[in-house]
């Protein structure tokens, strides 16, 4: 750690953005796999239970950090009751109730994210989800009165074009989804894992299985039909609604964090948020969405290490996202996650023998180009003025 507070050349903000990029990649890949892998019991896990557990983890971590933060401002001899009183007041007094609305929207977004990622392959999900950048920008301008220069608007247009190109269906197919989509899913998560049960997958079998998916493009004919569980239109609708909700909610959270007269730290805000989200996830998810299934099969039905990893990664993502919103802003956060598309892409090329199409490359290039243009305008804003040399 250097004297300027940098570590390995990156400052705090750059570290949180980098961590978010890798967390996002890992989350989408694991989350998708957790939805398409064969269930460990009779039934796949209920997504509402995962969203609920995610909130419990976030509440525990945020509360610990809020207590630590508050204890630092008090004298070492202060009784614990005073410490808890301070936490209680900051969480429940003032405008804490506003977090209830944000909590309801984030819970809806988290539930939709599971539906989307279970019906789309990981790469398409990520690209389509990038539309949230445009929605975030619109809300940042209207709700936060941010000014975005022409270069930034231009990069947002490029981004939208890129997202549209990648989302274009390739051709009609029996299941309603494009062969490209099925093919890409096979490459990311070889469908034949289903045929293999839980047999370990090595590089050789991964390559062999993904080659078999070429059948869908009419080259071979001895493959099982595509996964009937995946429905492209359900996935598309869910991801678009999730993107819209993400844009609005993220900006509203930022407004509360930065503009509210009640000066509350990000950890206090997160405690408030998780507190209300627990109720939203319990009522809207565990009881309303999956109540009958959970009472029949049990809360932890279908849980295994993959599901737990998805839950922990989602909780970590929420906490890192809040720090990024505090230190940078929502638009920068969203561009950081668009870089994770490249990470997912590289993982798929090397591990799953991923074959890419021209439209995919073209659309992804637009998304990455827009990220570059947007961040270059950020760099030019923060660049120090040129040094005037006295004549
Ligand atoms: O996709 P997006 O970046 O909007 O996702 C943000 C995620 O971070 C959501 O899952 C939301 O629940 C989570 N979050 C959080 N705490 C915050 C802000 C966001 O858990 N303070």
Describe the structure.
The protein is 72% helix and 0% strand. It contains 16 helices and no strands. It is globular. Helix 2 packs across helix 3, helix 3 crosses helix 12 and helix 6 (131-143) runs antiparallel to helix 15. The protein has helices at residues 12-36, 47-73, 80-92, 98-119, 122-129, 131-143, 150-167, 179-188, 193-196, 203-212, 232-259, 266-289, 291-297, 305-327, 330-352, 358-382. The protein has 391 residues and is mostly helical. The two termini are 40 Å apart. Bound molecules: cytidine-5'-monophosphate (C5P). Cytidine-5'-monophosphate (C5P) binds next to helix 4, helix 11, helix 12 and helix 14.
Largest sheet: none
Average pLDDT, all residues? 77
The helix-strand sequence is HHHHHHHHHHHHHHHH
Structural class: mainly alpha
The helix fraction, in percent, is over 70%
Give unreliable regions as ranges.
171-225
**What percent of residues are in strands?**
under 5%
Q: What is the terminal separation in angstroms?
A: 40 Å
Rg from Cα = 23 Å
Number of strands: 0
Number of helices: 16
* Ligand identities: cytidine-5'-monophosphate
Shape: globular
């Amino acid at each position: 750690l250097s004297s300027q507070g940098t570590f390995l050349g990156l400052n705090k903000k750059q570290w949180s953005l980098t961590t978010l990029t890798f967390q996002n990649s890992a989350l989408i890949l694991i989350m998708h796999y957790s939805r398409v892998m064969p269930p460990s019991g009779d039934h796949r896990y209920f997504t509402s239970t995962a969203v609920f557990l995610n909130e419990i983890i976030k509440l525990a971590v945020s509360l610990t950090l809020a207590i630590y933060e508050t204890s630092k401002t008090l004298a070492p001899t202060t009784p614990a009751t005073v410490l808890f009183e301070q936490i209680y007041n900051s969480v429940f007094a003032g405008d804490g109730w506003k977090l209830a609305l944000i909590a309801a929207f984030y819970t809806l977004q988290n539930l939709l994210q599971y539906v989307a990622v279970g019906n789309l392959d990981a790469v398409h999900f990520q690209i389509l989800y990038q539309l949230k950048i445009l929605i975030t920008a619109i809300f940042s301008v209207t709700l936060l009165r941010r000014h975005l220069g022409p270069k930034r608007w231009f990069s947002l247009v490029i981004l939208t074009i890129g997202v549209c190109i990648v989302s274009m269906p390739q051709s009609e197919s029996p299941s309603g989804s494009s062969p490209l989509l099925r093919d890409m899913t096979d490459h990311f998560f070889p469908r034949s894992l289903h045929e293999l049960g839980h047999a370990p997958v090595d590089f050789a079998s991964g390559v062999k299985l993904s080659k078999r998916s070429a059948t869908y493009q009419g080259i071979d004919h001895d493959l099982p039909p595509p996964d009937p569980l995946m429905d492209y239109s359900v996935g598309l609708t869910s991801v678009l609604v999730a993107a819209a909700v993400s844009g609005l909610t993220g900006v509203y959270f930022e407004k509360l964090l930065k503009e509210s007269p009640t000066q509350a730290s990000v950890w206090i805000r997160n405690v408030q948020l998780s507190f209300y989200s627990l109720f939203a996830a319990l009522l809207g998810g565990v009881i309303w969405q999956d109540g009958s299934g959970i009472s029949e099969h049990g809360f932890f039905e279908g849980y295994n290490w993959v599901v737990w990893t998805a839950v922990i990664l989602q909780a970590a993502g929420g906490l890192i996202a809040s720090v990024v919103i505090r230190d940078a802003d929502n638009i920068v956060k969203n561009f950081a996650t668009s870089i994770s598309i490249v990470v997912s892409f590289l993982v798929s090329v090397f591990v799953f023998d991923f074959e890419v199409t021209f439209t995919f490359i073209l659309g992804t290039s637009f998304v990455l180009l827009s990220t570059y243009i947007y961040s270059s305008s950020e760099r030019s804003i923060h660049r120090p003025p040129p040094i005037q040399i006295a004549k």
